[in-house]
Amino acid sequence: MPALKALTPRGWDVTIVDELVADVDLDRQCDVVGIGAMGPQIKRAYELADAFRARGKKVVLGGPWVSLAPQEASLAHADAIVVGEAETVWARCLEDLAAGRVRSGGVYRAEQFVDLGGTRTRAMGTRTMGDRKIDVFSEIDYRDLALVRWDRWKKSPLYRVYFHWPLMFGRGCPHPCTYCAVQTFYERSYRTRSIDAVIEDVRRIKAIGGKNLLFLDDNPIADPNAAKELFRRLAPEKIKWSSQCTIEIARDEELLDLAARSGCVALSIGFESDDAEVLDGIRKGFNRPQRYEEDLRRLRERGIQVIALMMLGMDGQKANVFDRTVERLERDGVSLVKLFTPAPYPGTRYHDEMTAQGRILDDDWGGYDYGSLLVEPRGMTDDDLRSGFDRAYKRFYGLPSIAKRMLRVPKANPVEHAAYLVANLKTWRFLQKNPSAWGTIS
Asked: pLDDT per residue over 164-184, tens digit each?
């Protein structure tokens, strides 16, 4: 949201509201309401959009869900929608709304990806138009766009909740995982910003007291050579950073060492399953579960906390997967876990496959959270999945498991170790008060 604010042309006064932080004032005096949403947030986004339009406000909807879902669904709730990256169309959208018009059909579609000023991977970086191929990257140079006002971010109520400074190095991911909306949205392309520009942002953040950074990238190591150069440049800055990436970081010793020296303290990593056949079924065979134990040991030795992302209820898994998964996570000393049930997000290959098989159980997108039963499971019953999912959460965040795992997670930084111990205990307490974990923990 701060980046979108930075893209807004002069002459507009912009106020950011995050409903996790503050209530939305439906009667606020404004001309245009822009709403972005991911996943299960979309139902609430539609509710807010309808409420604002009922009060005579112009509404624009955007974000990955709006871009990948059938456009009619979002246009029923908005005056306009932004499909794709906002840089090339946001100013035009606002200009039209200010003039009392919208583009035909109300769709502002970014026809090309933006040049971020750094490296570009073009594995699927061209589109065919007639008898010729065109580069999917636009001629707009991201370096010419307005920078985020970091001085204002520190004063934002968002900062007081998240305690991290959000930063971007790259966009996209080249992997073909069938369930993933990221690779669908970016067509398996990957781009990075100029490393000079990233370091400039880091120094601006440091100048106003910022030290804990969160790279919002889906996979900042997708171009290992670019990542290594970034990490070399970050090391002298003496910052701490977290992000998410693939387990491949543990299999390149130079990359892992550079990440640790650059200040990496925590990574969310999508393991999904410890069964090779299950991973092959979702085109994530590169994970190679036979190497998980060694991978996690390498991360742990370098003081990097791991938040493991695991999917339960996938094809090929049976009812014993819940206890087996927790036992492995405990044995490998994983700091935190986020469990997911399979979610057929619109636009993904997985959604198409489940639709073709007639296995999608719920078309209410408001229920597309991290724990609802959306796809008919095979290899277990619905009740097996519901009860096993809750049991796995409660066991992992039970006091015996917390004690066992906290003895194995990295203690190179006592402050970080204490923070993750507190996070585990808070989750344990939450589960004591809430009988069902469905869609609430993640």
From this structure: 888 899 999 999 999 999 999
3-state secondary structure of 236: helix
Token pair for 364:
């209410």
- DSSP summary character for residue 313: S
pTM for the model stands at 0.89
Alpha carbon distance 91, 25 (integer Å): 25
- What is the amino acid identity at position 349? R
Whether residue 109 contacts residue 119, with contact meaning beta carbons closer than 8 Å, is answered with no
Burial 246-265 (b: 16+ CB within 10 A, else e): bbbbbeeeebbebbbebbbb
Q: What is the pLDDT of residues 360-416, one digit of tens each?
A: 998 888 788 888 899 999 999 999 999 999 999 999 999 999 999 988 766 666 777
310, 326 Cβ separation under 8 angstroms: no
**Which of the listed residues 91, 112, 133 is the one where a domain comes to its end?**
112
Q: What is the DSSP secondary-structure string of 105-158? A: GGEEE--SEEE-EEEEE-TT-EEEETTEEEESEEEEEGGGSPPP-HHHHTTSHH
Number of domains in the chain: 2
Structural domain of 350: 148-433
